[in-house]
Write a structure and sequence with these properties.
The protein is α/β, with parallel strands linked by helices. The chain has a single domain (48-347), classed as TIM Barrel, CATH 3.20.20. It has 12 helices and 10 strands. It has an 8-stranded parallel barrel with strand order 1-2-3-4-5-6-7-8. It has a two-stranded antiparallel ribbon with strand order 9-10. Strand 2 (85-90), helix 4 (106-120) and strand 3 (125-130) form a beta-alpha-beta unit. The radius of gyration is 23 Å and the shape is globular. The termini are far apart.
Length: 350
């Protein structure tokens, strides 16, 4: 061994010393700055960690049949609680012309601008999510050009905004908007956005309601490192959507609990592993853009399920955004003006 060691050349020793330095604990590393390495998409820092959706607000129908008004105090509570981003669902399609050039109403832009200001002034990143564009799910080809025109306007309007403003192309593609069509549409939309926003983070999810199982169908531009992939998670559905008025047959699920049994936990781990494995294989970061349990479930089960999903996502390096702030899945009680403490602590432990 000694004779072999003595035959080591000076360059070899230098290489070995370099490796040793990289393996030294952080506190023992030399402070001399070194050149910044090239960052690949899979290594790019992810600015999002723990977020919350402002559901049932700007994505509510224009006729006002449901939804509630946003208040500055809500964003303050979110920031103080420890969240770092807000996902703002927006029904752009209800506030844009039906004919060319599909102009978005200036007054509606002002409402969204107000949300952006509430977030950025509190160091919260904000996701501008195109939500409830129901017509494109039913008749994709008839709405393709309108969809692209909306993003051309949104991108131009926010091109000078800080990079903490993120775009989400379309919430939960489904129905007639199949994977083949969606892959074409998203590529076109990205190209349009990149004309004015070359490095803004764009969030994209797969078809089948942003299912983790549909990630394998998603085709993204390989040379764009500023893409973040999202999926939604509401399993077991009979638990998270029991009694949901918009889900046929959900009344029969009332009373379903989630106890966190080994089998229940393993089912969730399996699904999250599917998503995490896809992300590793494709060099992409993930955002769990929606997860939550409806208010008809018992609070103890809701808190257990929410905490388990959040911790398991974090364990896999997946950022998350809870659905939602102050409505049927709400972590915040707007009437009492306080957090539903079990849900808040499930999301952000003390």
């Amino acid at each position: 061994m000694l004779s072999k060691f003595l035959r080591l050349t000076l360059p070899t020793l230098i290489v070995l010393l370099g490796i040793a330095c990289r393996r030294m604990p952080e506190v023992l590393r030399p402070t001399t700055p070194s050149p910044s390495p090239t960052i690949t998409p899979s290594e790019r820092p992810l600015r999002l960690s723990r977020g919350i959706n402002m559901g049932n607000t700007l994505e509510a129908p224009r006729d006002g049949s449901w939804g509630y008004r946003l208040q500055a105090a809500y964003f303050q509570r979110i920031a103080e609680a420890g969240f770092d981003h807000v996902r703002q669902p927006i029904r752009w399609s209800d506030y844009a012309a039906k004919e060319l050039p599909y102009t978005i109403e200036p007054e509606f832009f002002q409402q969204v601008d107000w949300v952006v200001e509430q977030c950025t002034s509190r160091n919260l990143a904000v996701i501008l999510d195109m939500h409830h564009y129901l017509e494109i799910m039913e008749n994709p080809e008839a709405h393709r050009e309108r969809f692209l025109a909306l993003w051309r306007q949104i991108a131009a309007h926010y091109q000078d905004s800080p990079d903490t403003v993120l775009f989400e192309l379309l919430n939960e593609p489904n129905g007639a908007l199949n994977a083949m069509l969606w892959n074409d549409y998203l590529a076109e939309a990205i190209a349009i956005i990149r004309q004015t926003n070359p490095s803004r983070v764009i969030i994209i999810g797969p078809t089948e309601w942003n299912s983790h199982a549909a990630l394998v169908t998603l085709k993204l531009p390989e040379n764009d490192p500023h893409l973040l992939v999202t999926f939604h998670y509401y399993q077991p559905f009979s638990f998270t959507h029991q009694g949901a008025e918009w889900v046929n047959g959900s009344a029969s699920w009332l009373g379903t609990t989630w106890q966190g049994t080994p089998a229940e936990q393993e089912a969730i781990r399996f699904d999250l592993d599917v998503a995490a494995r896809w992300a590793r294989q494709n060099g992409r970061k993930l955002l769990l853009g929606e997860f939550g349990a409806y208010e008809k479930a018992d609070m103890a089960s809701r808190a257990r399920w929410t905490a388990f999903v959040a911790r398991e996502a974090e364990a896999r390096g997946i950022a998350w955004c809870y659905w939602e702030f102050g409505a049927g899945f709400g972590a915040y009680d707007r009437i009492e003006r306080k957090w539903n403490e079990p849900l808040l602590r499930a999301l952000i432990p003390e």
